[in-house]
Amino acid sequence: MPKLSDVAHLGKAVTDSLQRGAPDIDMDTVPKMLDLSAEGLTDNVIAVNANTGNQRQKLVMEVLVRHLHAFASEVALTTEEWKTAIEFLTKTGQTCSDIRQEFILLSDVFGLSALVDILNHPKPEGATESTLLGPFFVEDAKTISLGESIASEGKGEPMLVRGRGNPIMRCMIDTWETDQDGFYDTQYTEYENDCRGRLYTDANGRYAFRGILPVAYPIPNDGPVGQLLRTMHRHVFRPAHLHFSFVTASSSLLRRFISGVTSSSRGRHISVDQLIGSDAVFGVKSSLIVETTRVTDPDEARRLGFSSDSFHLVEYDFVLLTKEEAAFEQAKVRHAASSRIVHPQVEVVGTSVALRSLP
Ligand code: BEZ
Ligand code: FE
């Protein structure tokens, strides 16, 4: 079993990297790769990746390599295009900071985030669907009592949001939304916690809070992802919506779901209604669309704590799965995925690698 470190007269660069932890592998297990054709190249990259003891990593890398190579071959990727892609990814990385994640945005506009969410939060009939978390969630939202406002005065048109869990008492709800100008609090240079809050359902699973009517807004589009969308002639807008995160914990049970509600005020915000069907990041689901109604009743408005005579009303109930139910649904998706995959079995024979597809 000759290892690389068994070879006499290794240069300093090789011994240094072995000392730093580069794998010192049995060279007999490495396929001899010379004069590879496009097809042989793919099989051999998969073969050299196959030594990992982590079966999930092995599977993910195998399929990734196969699809990446198939993509390049199918479009006959030019060197220029490949360079453009590398430059684009470089700029995407350079645009990331503590408060900006351009790679997640890239994943969002490709629909990858929406797909990962669908795969990881399958929902049986009747359960509340999840959707994109988005980049504007923060952990330090102020905690409010039931009925209190998450928005300071003058941030937008008053809105009451209320509903019930299935029933879940003491469910922690985080909610966040744009102000009337279409900005989240974190987008202002002087960040001050506003238009977001944390509250808990009562003993009957009920919740209520005051906020403001959210408006449509653009996803961040002043970086490479925005530039890409311009070249694709794609718009950058999300319909008006309110984010919800639901977390419950009892002694032995933790339930966590992220969800969103898209609010539509028919008649008043026609353009907003149009955006519901063309969200820039593919996050809208019919089951999450909620109609807002306008309540004009000065006494009721005052009783609820509004300073105006009227307010928008959103009523929204949610149904969460238990941790076990969620794990069961996820296992079904994973099982279906792994049974679709055909793994090539690699045999190292002398100096060549034979690949065989198992049924
Ligand atoms: C959001 O809804 O906050 C969001 C989601 C994805 C990209 C940008 C914003
Ligand atoms: Fe949002």
TrEMBL record:
Top-level taxon in the UniProt lineage: Eukaryota
Sorted UniProt keywords: Dioxygenase, Iron, Metal-binding, Oxidoreductase
GO BP annotations, alphabetical order: catechol-containing compound metabolic process
Alphabetized InterPro entries for the sequence: Catechol_dOase_N, Intradiol_dOase_C, Intradiol_dOase_core, Intradiol_RC_Dioxygenase
Cofactor needs: Fe(3+)
GO molecular function: catechol 1,2-dioxygenase activity; ferric iron binding
Pfam families: Dioxygenase_C, Dioxygenase_N
Domain named Catechol dioxygenase N-terminal: residues: 54-128
Family statement drawn from the similarity comment of this UniProt entry: Belongs to the intradiol ring-cleavage dioxygenase family.
Protein name per its UniProtKB record: Intradiol ring-cleavage dioxygenases domain-containing protein
Organism of origin: Saitozyma podzolica
